[in-house]
Structures are given as C-alpha cells and as structure tokens.
Write a structure and sequence with these properties.
The complex is a heterodimer of chains A (188) and B (275).
Chain A: H1 6-14, H2 18-40, H3 43-63, H4 72-98, H5 113-132, H6 136-147, H7 152-159, H8 163-187
Helix pairs in contact in A: 1-2, 2-3, 2-4, 3-4, 5-8
Chain B: H1 3-8, H2 11-16, H3 22-32, H4 36-62, H5 80-149, E1 164-167, E2 182-184, E3 192-198, E4 207-213, E5 219-227, E6 233-239, E7 246-255, E8 261-271
Parallel strand pairs in B: 1-3, 2-8
Antiparallel strand pairs in B: 3-6, 4-5, 4-7, 7-8
C-alpha cells in the first residue's frame, strides 16, 4: 500500500480518522523513540516520552496547529526534543529544590544477563568481520573513524583515499556485519 | 536532506558520534524520523560501533600498558634469518669484548715488564761495576797497609825511585812482529818498574784489568779492578824480576757497562836490561 503524503495524513487526522492517527504513530514511532533514546540515554524514559510526543502531536493536529503539513516530520521531532528538554529541566529543578539527587534521578537499569550475552555475541561478530577485512588499511579506516573519531577528510588524506572509496569501505563493513548479525539472529 | 546526501557525507555515523553541526543535526532527525532505511542504517551502525568499541577495549585490556612496551617486542617483526644473524652477532660481540680487553691489557703489561727489565739490567751493571771498583780500592788499601807495616814488597825507600817507562799502543797488525814497538832497559838496581800505559782518547772505563804475557803466550802477571785514573795514562807497577830479557805483550782491558771486560789496547815490548 503506498504511503500517503504528510498533507493528506494531516487532513485525515483533522477529519477525525482514527486510522490516520494510527498511521501517524506507526510512521514516526520508531524514529521518535530513537531520537529520544539518543537524547535521554534511557530506553524506558524514551518510551514514555515517545507516548507523550504522539499525544501532544495529535492534540495539536486536531486543533489545527499544524500550519505546514509538508513539514510534519519536523513538527513531530520538535515536540519530542522539547519534551526531552523539559524533562531534564524539571529534573534539575527538583534536585535543586530538595537538595538531593535521589528524587530526581532514576538510575538506568543495569544491562540484563541477556543484554550482556548479546553484547558478547556482537563483539564476536565484529572480530570475525575484522578478521575477514582485507587489506589491513580497511581495518585502520574503521578504527580511525569509529573509535578514534577522526575526521573523514584527514583519514582520506593520510591513506590517499577518495571520499567514494572511504564510504565504500564503511558500507561494505556494515553490510557484512549485517549479514553476520542476521545469521546470529536466525540461530537464536 | 536526501539519501544521497546522507550516504555521501556519512551523516548517520556522524550523528551517532555527535559530530554533526546543529542545523544538520536537526535536518537529519527530521529526515530520520520518517525514513525506515536510514533508521535501519542508524541502528546497524550503532550496534556495529558499539561492538567495535567493545572489541578494542577487550584487546587493550589484554595488551601491555602504553609506555611499557616490551623492550624486545621489535624482534618479533624480524624474519627468522634476520633473528639468527642478529643472535650470532650478539654472541660474537660477547665473546670478542672480553678477549679484546684481555689482549690489550696483556700488551700493556708486557710493555711494562720489558721496561722494568731494562731498568733492572742497568742497575745490575752499575752494581757489578761498583763491586769491582770497591775490590780494587780494597786491594790498594791493603797494599798501603802492608807497606806501612813493612810487609809489602814494594820499595819503601824514597831514594829508590822505580824507573818509569811510557808504552805506546801497539796496533793490531803490529802485534807478533819480531820487533816490538816499545823497548825498555831495566837497570840492574831497580827492583820495580812503572809502566805508563797511554790511552787513546779519554778513559771510558771506570776500572781495568791487565795481563802480561811472555813470548810463549804464558801469562806472567795479571791485575784486576784497576780503578780508572784522571789522566790520559794508566800506571802499572811491576817487579823487575818478572821481566828478564825478552819480548812481552801487555794487554789492557776495560770494564764495560755490561759488566764485561773488553780489550782497550795492547802494548808489545822488548826488555833489555843490564842484569
């Protein structure tokens, strides 16, 4: 089924179509969760804020507050970001008021045993990938870009690579990792 | 922002690393939130990067600390034959170093020993010469004492003066000739005679010895440890009875620095006396 445009989606939500609201949530929930997880570092908090994001977004759309439907993505992102900012602002206010940190902060849940095992398996896949990578220079590209976080331009200049070649190395590494990861998920 | 821009500029990776400028950050999120493909790529890159960091951390934990690199770790980069050659050179150097040191030290010690030996030889020669001089002086003293006590056979009468005969050096080719170079006529009344032996050049010896041989080569008289005198001639006193008519050869030898006597000069003489 072809995805409908953002303008039509907004119009249908204004018209009260429940399916359009579900379409909105389905279309943006994954992205919003990811953005909020990046902002908060807390998956559980990100889920809570994500629900608030869609609640607020739908309220605003129903009220007709969306003036540029073609920029619906930006509209949803802004709501999500503002909620994250408000959350931390509120938390800091609580810490100052009570003079303690315990009330305002909820420690992130420790990784579960399953998560730990999963991380170990992911590391094994990376080792296998690195072992497969030829020449040695490709491994160096990954280390320098992802671990040392060096600038792409600098790496290309040092190793005498073009931008296209550099991107190809990263893409190849990620694709191979994806294949290995899919194999692992298939076995689990 | 479209897919092509995101791929060409590694936007997803930079977003994960927090290295996007603020405006690109916002634009990418607006694109990301509605793009399943970019979401997939972002999730994959996130997992990959996290796993890569874990691998690097594990390897770093197993490796030696930075700054404490194994001192011989570079050896591992050499090939087998290079390591063999390097090991051989190291062994050779270890063997040669003490040997070279020993040889140099031994040479120096030998040189010192040779120098000390030379000095020792010089002192020995000086000691031998001093001994002979002392012996000659002791003999002279004894003669004087005997003379003083009347036991000496030397003439005590100041009136009886021993005749003095100066002898010329006989050249080597003249020794053995029928006519000796020197002719002396000993008076019947002279119990002693004095022979004055002229040097050629300055006296180079501190002591002398002399011997008198007859025409048949038999030694009739000899004297040792005769001290050198501060004149250009050496005086020898002989009893007249030793020299009846005939031919004689007087040989004078000087004591050299090596402690050995060497012929200085010879004097052939013909005695004609009135006895």
């Amino acid at each position: 089924m072809e995805e409908i445009g953002t303008g039509e989606l907004v119009a249908r939500i204004l018209a009260g179509e429940r399916s359009a609201e579900q379409e909105l949530v389905q279309r943006y929930s994954r992205g919003v969760s990811m953005i909020l997880h990046r902002s908060t570092g807390d998956r559980s908090l990100a889920e809570d804020l994500s629900q608030d994001t869609f609640r607020i977004a739908l309220e605003k759309i129903r009220r007709g507050d969306v003036r540029e439907p073609e920029r619906l993505s930006g509209f949803v992102c802004n709501i999500a970001r503002n909620l994250a900012i408000d959350h931390f602002r509120h938390r800091r206010r609580l810490e100052v008021f009570d003079g303690t940190e315990e009330i305002g902060s909820i420690p992130a849940p420790a990784p579960s045993q399953l998560d730990h095992i999963l991380r170990q398996e992911e590391a094994k896949l990376v080792r296998q990938l690195l072992h497969e990578l030829q020449p040695e220079r490709d491994r160096e590209i990954l280390y320098r870009f992802y671990i040392a976080e060096e600038e792409k331009a600098q790496i290309c200049a040092d190793l005498k690579l073009t931008s296209l070649h550099f991107n190809r190395v990263l893409h190849r590494a990620r694709q191979r990792y994806k294949e290995l990861y899919e194999e692992l998920k298939g076995k689990v | 922002m479209d897919h092509r821009y995101v791929d060409e500029n590694n936007i997803a990776s930079l977003y994960l690393m927090g290295k996007l400028p603020p405006d690109e950050y916002v634009r990418f999120e607006e694109h990301l939130v509605a793009c399943p493909d970019c979401l997939d790529q972002l999730e994959l890159t996130d997992v990959f990067r996290r796993a890569l960091k874990r691998v690097v951390a594990e390897d770093a934990a197993r490796s030696p600390l930075p700054g404490r690199a194994e001192p011989f770790a570079w050896l591992a980069s050499l090939s087998a034959w290079q390591r063999t050659v390097l090991t051989g050179c190291a062994v050779l150097l270890l063997l040669l170093t003490p040997t070279t040191f020993f040889l140099v030290r031994t040479k120096g010690v030998r040189h010192e020993v040779a120098q000390l030996k030379n000095v020792s030889d010089d002192w020995q020669n000086k000691y031998a010469a001093e001994r002979q001089s002392r012996a000659a002086l002791e003999k002279q003293l004894q003669d004087l004492q005997e003379r003083a006590s009347g036991k000496s056979s030397l003439p005590t009468d100041s009136q009886s003066v021993a005749p003095l005969f100066a002898l010329n050096v006989t050249r080597g080719e003249e020794v053995g000739r029928s006519e000796p170079a020197n002719r002396i006529n000993i008076p019947r009344t002279a119990p002693w005679i004095v022979l004055s032996l002229e040097y050629e050049g300055e006296p180079a010896f501190r002591a002398y010895q002399a011997r008198l041989e007859g025409s048949d080569g038999r030694v009739l008289w000899s004297a040792e440890h005769i001290p050198a005198q501060n004149s250009d001639a050496l005086a020898i006193t002989l009893p007249s009875r030793l020299l009846p008519k005939g031919k004689y050869l007087l040989t004078l030898e000087g004591l050299g620095p090596a402690g050995r006597y060497a012929v200085v000069s010879r004097y052939s003489l013909l005695v004609t006396n009135n006895q």
